[in-house]
Amino acid sequence: MGTASEAIVIRSYGGPDVMKLEAIEVAAPGPGELLVRQHAASVNFHDIYVRSGSYRTLELPGVPGLEAVGTVEAIGAGVTDFAVGDRIAYISRNYGGYARQRVISAAFAVPVPVSIDDGIAAAWFLKGLTAQALVDEVEPVRPGMAVLVQAAGGGVGQLVTRMARLRGGRVIGTAGSPDKAAIARAAGCEEVILYRTEDTPAKVMAFTDGEGVGASYDAVGADTFEDSLASLAIKGHLVHYGQASGPIPPFDLSRLGARSAKVSRPFLWPYISTRETFLAASARLFSSIGAGELPLALGGRYGLADAKHAHSALEARAAGPFVLDC
Q: In whole angstroms, what separates CA 103 from the centre of its chain?
């Protein structure tokens, strides 16, 4: 027999107002599953793409949200890693995070240290794993390496900046406003460029004595792709991991030849595709947060019923990240 609960449901693509709080029934956990009483759910740009229809990866009607933190209320048959009362964080490719309760696969969950706040863990878990994969695996940051972080005042941008600095990198950041530039500097950028009004490649070349950067980590997309490309050093790597300003137009790969450069479009999932890699990456991230190496804060907390306001704030480029208190 199911449990009565509530969730944000999307029945058609569109603006923030398409998200409505509705009564739902949550099934009992099946084999290998957990019933979770959620404490906080993260609000990500991915959720905006899903809600607007830019990504058609959520079957409608559906509940958005990829990650949350909560307490295990019941366990299904065969679950040995968790017990009732355990506090967990999870990432689920099946969505469903904007809810008071839900059932998830135990394979998607990891334990959360008691020293880390629910909101911090929820807001920064996916972002932190993404940034960690970018600077450790997609294009590893080496001591002394110059890198460009587009939108360094954003959620993942801040983490890429901090993690790159921890690994000995020299970070040039870009920002869309003076407020975001201040956040980028606080995260560790040695130089911050206002990419909407300043010449990013020229400033990058001046900062690097004409060499360019070994990597450009770019989640902005259409508005910054050309600047990222023009800022690369010989054998540089443009890591295009998001498209907040829209998709990249068709691109002639032969343009990369002059600098023997490369462009990649990574997603997080292949880097945490096994239980072992997921647990190890999560443990490294939570260890860094707990040790104070990644001083993190929230831009705002909203009630679950106010999810539309969180989306509006994120789309307006307000300083985040944001969570929904479930």
A: 22
Q: How many CB atoms lie within 10 A of CB 130?
A: 24
Q: Sort 84 into a burial class: Cβ within 10 Å, 0-12 / 13-18 / 19+.
A: exposed
Longest dimension (CA), the chain: 67
The answer to whether residues 38 and 70 touch, using CB atoms and an 8 Å cutoff, is yes
Nearest to 160 by CA among 192, 131, 124, 186: 131
Q: What is the pLDDT of residues 207-248, one digit of tens each?
A: 999 999 999 999 998 999 999 999 999 999 999 998 878 888
pLDDT in tens, 274-319: 999 999 999 999 999 999 998 888 889 999 999 999 999 998 878 7
For the chain, list the domains and their CATH numbers. Answer: 3-124+269-325 (3.90.180.10), 143-264 (3.40.50.720)
